Amino acid sequence: MKMEKPTSTTKLFEISNKLLERAGPGSKTAAIVAGHRFDESQKPEDERICYDPYAIHFVSPEVLELNKDPQKAKAMLESLGDLGTLLLGLGNSTRARVRYFDDFVKTSIDKGISQLVILGAGYDTRAYRIEGLGSEDNIRVFEVDHPVTQEVKTEKIKEIFGAVRENVVYVPLDLMTENLGEKLLQAGYDKSKQTLFLMEGLLMYLQPETVDRILYFISKNSGKGSAIIFDYYPKSVVDGSSVLEVGKIAHDYLARIGEPLMFGIEEGLLEEFLAKRGFSHVCNVTSEDYKRAYFHGKNENRAVSSLLLFAHAVVE
Ligand SMILES: C[S@@+](CC[C@H](N)C(=O)[O-])C[C@H]1O[C@@H](n2cnc3c(N)ncnc32)[C@H](O)[C@@H]1O
Predict the structure, then answer these.
(1) Residue 277 domain-assigned?
(2) How far, in Å, is the centroid of ligand 1 from the Cα of 301?
(3) Cβ-contact 165, 135 below 8 angstroms
């Protein structure tokens, strides 16, 4: 009998299964992103694109081991052929996203926000690592995520810091089935205050109706000068019609790990999309923009993926 040659997605699935086997019951994609932050943070200070000293606490023992054995990591990527190179680019884009969003939070603090709402916070530790977000700084941080992922996160935070910070409010909920506005207001969110809503690696996993509901809530229930920042894939990646190999693979792989892509924005239509939903001062950040901003010197030759775009806008 002729054996079927395993597809790239199957191989990727097998490798990631091994790496995530002991990652815990939370979101797999949250663990993958924590893995990127961890790996980048191990690099020398003048080389790393982003830095999260706490990411190490959120990765599986297999990821820790792999980081100590660069030859094994290289062989693993090479076993995926061209896909390995494409994934490296997507990973670099994810690391640039962390840096861009960190920088945006810092600028927003300087502009005077008094609330930061992080939707789909995963294992991100901005609330604990960005200067200006401490308990004494008068900025309330709301972290929203699926109850299971959030529990894994808060248990780890207590292990690392002894307790969760007083100014960080955890709001466990399923954004697709529960009412974000109601839960946020119950948790103490003040709709009259200037707020930054940060959605990193989130909107693509939500149904378009849910994305609309979230944006509607923000545009109608936030103080003057409030803003949003998020990242997105072009619609072609989400509906599986992308002509780019990495787009097709990302689509199939994410469906297989149970976190399928559901939302994308038609290329060139970001501004129109956001204007219709009550936002202005729209900024679209392409892979060329973030490559130019962050990848210099030793990082000059690191490829990024044109699939991942960032966006920010202000509530009208
Ligand atoms: C790709 S991870 C990104 C995590 C984090 N923002 C980061 O960048 O590290 C996606 C996150 O969105 C959360 N998420 C996805 N769908 C959700 C839903 N329906 N309700 C609440 N959270 C959701 C997942 O639990 C996960 O933490």
Answers:
(1) yes
(2) 30
(3) yes
Q: Which domain does 235 fall in, by range?
A: 8-315
Please tell me whether the overall predicted TM-score, pTM, comes out greater than 0.85 for this model: yes
For ligand 1, the distance from its centroid to the CA atom of residue 66, given in whole angstroms, is 24
Ligand 1 contact, 311 CB (< 6 A): no
Q: How many domains does the chain have?
A: 1
Q: Tell me the C-alpha distance between 132 and 139, whole Å.
A: 8
Evaluate whether residue 226 is within a structural domain: yes
Given a cut of 80, is residue 173 above it in pLDDT?
yes
Could you tell me the distance, in angstroms and rounded to a whole number, from the CA of residue 122 to the centre of ligand 1?
Answer: 5
**Using an 8 Å Cβ cutoff, are 94 and 290 in contact?**
no
> Using one digit for the tens of pLDDT, what is the confidence trace for 121-166?
999 999 999 999 998 889 999 999 999 999 999 999 999 999 999 9
As given in the structure block, the two tokens for residue 304 are 């990024």
Q: Is residue 2 part of a domain?
A: no
Q: CATH number, domain at 122?
A: 3.40.50.150
